[in-house]
Amino acid sequence: MERTAQNTVVGFIGTGVMGKSMAGHLMNKGYKLHVYSRTKEKAESLVAQGAEWHQTPSSLAPLCDVIITMVGYPHDVEEVSLGEQGVIPHAKPGTIVIDMTTSSPSLAKRIEAEALKRGILALDAPVSGGDVGAREARLSIMVGGSKEAFDQALPVLEAMGTQIVHQGPAGSGQFTKMCNQIAIASNMMGVCEALIYAQKAGLDPSTVLKSIQSGAAGSFSLSNLAPRMLNGDYAPGFYVKHFIKDMQIALDSAKEMKLELPGLAQARALYEQLAQMGEEDSGTQALFKVYQQQL
């Protein structure tokens, strides 16, 4: 059965930088929403719009037809999905559980296996697009799981994103997101190096951007994050600490596949240096601060 706003109650767990916007779009589309986050204050604006607050994921679970998790780390995903107070032990049969956190592919497979034992469908559906994509409901959503679950959940996902692709069985969404993060990691180094080079050469980096962002060097980071770097705006669209987590997942996965990714390893080392500078809660564009030390 297709999950539409008329026949679907949605639970949303994790209302941080991106989750709050994503949950808001679901409400705007007419879905009845139940919410849980560890910090209740982060969900207050959603509650003010009519969402129902819950003290635990387990109290939310049996009331919902679709449950979305958007939390921080794999251990958080495991806790809210499979823990004693998690959603899978308490959700009703037929529920679709969608984890949109960037997490471990192996955990995604385990969640699906546990869900299926209880007659629950599960998808891993991490996203790309950052805070801007979340606010504008144009996230790229990469989905792993059964085609049955994907088809049922598609209307819900369409409320939050525009590029929604079923990548394959459980874990495929997370593997695809790792591809995304691997590409971003080296690109962020390139953006920072281009800007610092421009400054050292005596150019106006903002003027340089006008020439290079629409050419072959163009990228989301160059168009959207480079201007923030130059303005000293390091507010998080995506946290440094979460990007470090993602890169480690990708490196661990690559190691399992006996694959070397030197660009990713270098990016992770630079971001670790950034975190040691006290910037782990800054946005990923704060990597520029590491390079600015050369000025």
TrEMBL record:
SUPFAM superfamilies per UniProt: 6-phosphogluconate dehydrogenase C-terminal domain-like, NAD(P)-binding Rossmann-fold domains
Limits of the 6-phosphogluconate dehydrogenase NADP-binding domain: 10-167
Signal peptide annotation: none
Record-linked Pfam families: NAD_binding_11, NAD_binding_2
E.C. numbers: 1.1.-.-
Keywords linked to the UniProt accession: NAD, Oxidoreductase
InterPro entries: 6-PGluconate_DH-like_C_sf, 6PGD_dom2, 6PGDH_NADP-bd, HIBADH-like_NADP-bd, HIBADH-related, NAD(P)-bd_dom_sf
Class of enzymatic activity (EC top level): oxidoreductase
GO molecular function: oxidoreductase activity
Ranges where the 3-hydroxyisobutyrate dehydrogenase-like NAD-binding domain occurs: 171-291
Matching PANTHER family: 3-HYDROXYISOBUTYRATE DEHYDROGENASE-LIKE 1, MITOCHONDRIAL-RELATED
Family to which the UniProt record says this protein belongs: Belongs to the HIBADH-related family.
Name of the featured protein: NAD(P)-dependent oxidoreductase
Organism: Paenibacillus vulneris
Top-level taxonomy: Bacteria, Bacillati, Bacillota, Bacilli, Bacillales
